[in-house]
Design goal:
single chain, 190 residues, alpha+beta
Length: 190
């Protein structure tokens, strides 16, 4: 007697198999949340620039991330967005650092707020695992003169009834003496 082929049924909501409710199925592993933690923000002031260094940590591991976006705000005004590619491999670490060098020409001395927003970006424009941190900085512009001049120098010496000869004047007298010595020998050769 030939066996008849048994037709397979397509699963639908109405005919889903019942799920067993054993103790093994109800036990679930703890879900480790992906997270971006900004650990440190510090700034340094240069000539017409401000450097903002940001340290951040990826949890549970850098391997859970491929790239993240970081947005920088100055006084609640968006000024930059960068995409940070997370390296994978044996040399990669969970703690990373990123620095912005901000051009501050024309920015007056004062107290300002800088805010960093970091998140994992998805093609659907979702911002996942978003974190934000602010820092208040006391910005004092540094000029070339304040950076370079550490010791004052003598600009001019004045006196009464005393003749002071500076190094420049000494050099002029020496040059005159050399020229005077050369002139008699050049006249004898004629």
């Amino acid at each position: 007697m030939p066996k008849t082929a048994k037709q397979l049924k397509q699963l639908t909501i109405d005919n889903l198999p019942a799920t067993p409710t054993t103790t093994q199925d109800t036990k679930t592993k703890p879900i480790i949340q992906k997270q971006i933690c900004i650990t440190k923000m510090e700034n340094t002031t240069g000539i017409d620039e401000l450097t903002l260094k940001t340290n951040f940590k990826l949890e549970p591991s850098h391997q859970a991330f491929s790239k993240i976006k970081a947005e920088l705000y100055f006084e609640n005004t968006h000024i930059d967005t960068v995409t940070i590619q997370i390296l994978q491999g044996s040399l990669a670490t969970n703690e990373l650092e990123y620095s912005w060098v901000i051009d501050t020409k024309g920015i007056a001395e004062g107290t300002y707020r800088l805010k960093i927003e970091m998140y994992e970006h998805w093609p659907s424009n979702e911002k996942l695992y978003q974190t934000t941190q602010e820092i208040t900085i006391n910005y004092i512009p540094q000029t070339r003169q304040s950076r370079l001049i550490k010791i004052p120098f003598i600009k001019k010496i004045t006196s009464t009834n005393i003749a002071i000869i500076t190094n420049q004047e000494k050099q002029i007298y020496k040059d005159l003496e050399k020229t005077a010595k050369k002139e008699p020998t050049s006249q004898q050769n004629k």
